[in-house]
Design brief:
6-stranded parallel sheet; 6-stranded mixed sheet; 12 strands; DNA-binding; Rossmann fold; homodimer
Chain lengths: 334, 334
DNA sequence: ATGAAAGCGCTAACAC
DNA sequence: GTGTTAGCGCTTTCAT
């Protein structure tokens, strides 16, 4: 910078980072030049000189067994790649999908040393007590996928479950006749006793709220079941008799689609969540009408970007980073 | 890099940029180390040393009078801001929405000197002859918003009009009864004689194709009109009698929504394009059911990012950068 | 064919 | 309180 015009680089530096030790006159002189010439610091040179390193911990379920967790990981890796030149390095802690494994990984994270943490708080209680200890490190924490309300100093990049259930309600209701019969089919999954289950519950609540608010006079009927239909036997086709639309609040809507396919059930609308491969397959086959999701890759991506910005002190203050809710049909999937 | 392990920085540099002047032995030695240690060049240091500047020309209609053009400009500015530290500077050429102004601006661009160009080829013929001359500069060109087929060495970041019309067909047809009556209402606009008009034509074609392919047996009826309904008088409410759904292939769907509002026409589905303020207003009021768009900010953003990557030779080779087609309803607008 | 050295813009340690 | 200086990793020029 044009320090030549006035003083030395040292002084300018002290002023810019207001480390004090400068005469008011000088600080004014330099400020004037800054304003006049519209000086902006060269981030690259700065980073080069600082040679800063950021080490973030990523705490997620193993994604080689559960497709659902691949997407956020992809986003995380993409962000990591983009940010390596900024000195960002990730340390992964993957756990098997059970509470013991979660707790064990948590232990390791506590003894390790990082500049930030992103985690999916699958096991609510375990996550809570882990985070309480972790918070003493005074290092930013970003929750992903499902929230853990009531913790302060914890950021959230994830879905708005109630809102997406509400949207599902809208799409389901759109074009249905009055007195149509809707079935909410909550298929059991490994998430049954986890924090993810709250996501499904909130979606269902959102779904119901939509009809309560908008179609109250339409005499909709809502069933709810926890049946599993991975094997045909568990559910009888009769369950779907007289039903006009089925809403599956978790990612298992493809089971229903397959069931329809096998039993030649057509003309029942089918709405679900998440772009899992199998869901896409039935979307393409036009067995599923709508899939709703909040780009999970983007959640992972944003979480890492957020941590970086936070550390590089490029402001970034909001507590919740919203991810748009997207509507996917066969015709706009790509 | 670990040149210390072998030779001097100079030699390493020559190898990395293969400028020759190196013994095969050395090039092998260094290559080995590169592979082993997974060396990746520090882009920031590189840029610092190179002190490179990129100047891109942005050639768009004035957006202070036409809301439609604000969005891509926003995206462009966002990208510009992110890339200033990479030495990117933009030069804007805005023109009034007429061919003369377009041609005049084009002249200026031809005499100026840039490292890349992004433009909206509103006036097809004028744009064509301009681009033919511009291509001699041998500098990358990115088309935005509407394509100009048949030009080579020209990239496109924009919408897929046929596909989005097709999607509009799907959403319109979803939930309609057989024998429903659909009106395609093409409202006249300033774009009538421009390349943008092709966008609308292609959307309509996509819309029709959807019904041809999927609902042929449903006995849909399609009307088409070029009426303007900015003043009430032009269109009579009777036009909408017996109509179940209206599709407006351009961004003027809010005129229809307002017309419905004024004439208390309800229970006619309304589908359109673009998230203009006024369209959003009627989406919120539930007068418009669906709005389809391909994030125009993202188009602008991607265009600039593309140019930068192209120049910084970070590969980037595809000719068409796809922008997802998004479905917006009241419940997922934010 | 290769090495040495200056400089890109900024930071931080040190000397005055 | 202020100036000087080395060095971040890379490019480029100039000797050798």
């Amino acid at each position: 910078m044009a320090e030549l015009a006035q003083v030395s680089v040292g002084t300018v530096d002290r002023i810019i980072h207001n480390r004090g030790q400068v005469t008011p006159e000088n600080i004014e002189k330099v400020q004037a030049i800054i304003n006049e010439y519209g000086y902006v610091k060269n981030v690259m040179a700065s980073n080069l000189a600082l040679n800063k390193k950021y080490r973030f911990a990523v705490f997620l379920p193993k994604s080689d067994t559960i497709e659902y967790w691949k997407a956020p990981l992809n986003g995380i890796q993409k962000a990591a790649q983009e940010l390596t030149i900024m000195g960002v390095a990730l340390e992964y802690y993957f756990f098997d999908f059970n509470e013991d494994a979660f707790v064990q990984a948590a232990q390791q994270i506590l003894i390790a040393d990082h500049d930030g943490l992103v985690l999916a708080p699958i096991f609510q209680e375990a996550a809570r007590s882990f985070l309480e200890k972790y918070q003493e490190k005074n290092t930013p924490i970003v929750l992903i996928d499902s929230n853990l309300p009531g913790l302060k100093n914890v950021f959230y990049v994830g879905q708005d479950s109630h809102k997406s259930g509400y949207l599902a309600g809208k799409l389901t209701g759109y074009g249905l006749q009055p007195n149509a019969h809707i079935l909410i089919l909550k298929l059991k999954s490994i998430n049954e006793n986890t924090n993810r289950n709250n996501v499904f519950i909130q979606r269902i609540q959102g779904f119901r709220d939509y009809f309560k608010e908008k179609k109250a006079n339409h005499n909709f009927t809502l069933f709810e079941t926890n049946s599993i239909i991975e094997s045909k036997e568990v559910v009888a086709p009769s369950l779907f008799e007289g039903i006009d639309a089925v809403y599956v609040p978790n990612s298992r809507v493809h089971f229903v689609a397959r069931f329809f396919e096998q039993h030649h059930i057509t003309s029942v609308k089918l709405i679900g969540h998440e772009l899992l491969k199998e869901n896409i397959e039935y979307l393409q086959k036009e067995r599923i009408d709508f899939l709703i999701h909040q780009k999970p890759e983007e959640q992972g991506y944003s979480a890492i970007q957020f941590l970086y910005k936070k550390k590089a002190s490029q402001e970034e203050n909001k507590e919740v980073i919203p991810i748009p809710i997207e509507i996917i049909v066969k015709e706009n999937y790509y």
